[in-house]
Write a sequence for this structure.
């Protein structure tokens, strides 16, 4: 799972004793729903999270970033996560 560490969900999960999360997929054509629930650990690379210095997770984070499309990566450069993009004046 990939998220912007400035998003409110990071603070919400980090503030809990048990750091868990759930992913939900809904397929409307077949009316199927899939849920995956488990422990979550954040890896950011800037020393903010416990696993930031772990080489295995650093490589996995870089690989995930490289697998994102350009449009998906561009969202991380928005002024504020969770709000519609507003182009800045040039």
């Amino acid at each position: 799972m990939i998220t912007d560490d400035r998003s409110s969900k990071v603070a919400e999960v980090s503030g809990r004793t048990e750091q868990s999360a759930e992913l939900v997929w809904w397929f409307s054509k077949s009316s199927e729903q899939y849920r995956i629930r488990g422990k979550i650990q954040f890896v950011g690379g800037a020393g903010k999270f416990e696993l930031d210095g772990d080489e295995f997770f650093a490589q996995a984070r870089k690989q995930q970033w490289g697998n994102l499309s350009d449009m998906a990566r561009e969202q991380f450069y928005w002024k504020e996560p969770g709000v519609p993009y507003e182009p800045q004046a040039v």
Remarks:
- The radius of gyration is 16 Å.
